[in-house]
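Lecture notes, part 5. Sequence design as translation. It can be helpful to think of inverse folding as translation between two languages: the language of shapes and the language of residues. The source text, in structure tokens, appears below.
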């Protein structure tokens, strides 16, 4: 009771019977698609292991190099905002308060900044109507090793017909020192220590 239409083969099962070899042909077509997918994934993995950037959009604070799209260079305007976020946090200003302050100063959040610069960017991690800084946006910046010069990729994997698979952090592809750092190691270490302390405090509170 299923109607089968194949445009390229000029077939519509509602109008005519189709060759019984067609399902076999489709099996070969799918195998070809799987083979191509494996080769593309292997090529991308090789680039990731080498530290080449293969994303569609550079991380906030960076931009793709005009000479080599697989290399990142600093976007000074956005990088200054990232530095401010780290400075405010280690000075004792909470992540939620940082987001409020950035919104009060009308500083564009990462997704809006990308769109303003002409990128057709969508952020699946936030509501479509959210065009401002949030706690989670600030938190992701504070926890991202990209800002100390490390290339972090392979966080997700797209599976055929199964959507996006989230990869465990210990399996991420991490290559150190691949681009200029925005945040120095001392500032980074202080921020990570404070984040861990805050997380530990929240865990203790939830167990009381």
């Amino acid at each position: 009771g299923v109607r089968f239409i194949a445009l390229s083969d000029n077939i519509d099962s509602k109008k005519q019977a189709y060759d019984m070899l067609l399902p076999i042909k489709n099996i070969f077509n799918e195998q070809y698609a799987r083979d191509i997918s494996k080769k593309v994934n292997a090529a991308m993995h090789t680039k990731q292991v080498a530290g080449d950037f293969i994303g569609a959009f550079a991380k906030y604070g960076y931009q793709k190099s005009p000479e080599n799209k697989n290399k990142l260079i600093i976007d000074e305007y956005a990088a200054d905002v990232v530095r401010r976020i780290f400075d405010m946090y280690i000075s004792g200003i909470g992540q939620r308060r940082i987001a409020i302050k950035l919104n009060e100063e009308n500083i564009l959040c990462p997704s809006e900044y990308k769109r303003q610069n002409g990128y057709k960017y969508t952020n699946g991690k936030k509501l479509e109507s959210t065009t401002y800084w949030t706690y989670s946006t600030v938190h992701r910046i504070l926890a991202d090793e990209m800002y100390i010069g490390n290339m972090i990729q392979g966080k997700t994997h797209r599976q055929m017909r199964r959507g996006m698979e989230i990869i465990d952090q210990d399996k991420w592809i991490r290559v150190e020192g691949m681009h200029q750092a925005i945040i120095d190691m001392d500032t980074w270490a202080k921020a990570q220590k404070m984040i861990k302390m805050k997380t530990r405090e929240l865990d203790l509170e939830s167990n009381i």
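The translated text above is only one of many valid answers, since several sequences can fold into similar shapes. The helical segments are 22-49, 76-90, 95-104, 110-116, 135-142, 185-207.
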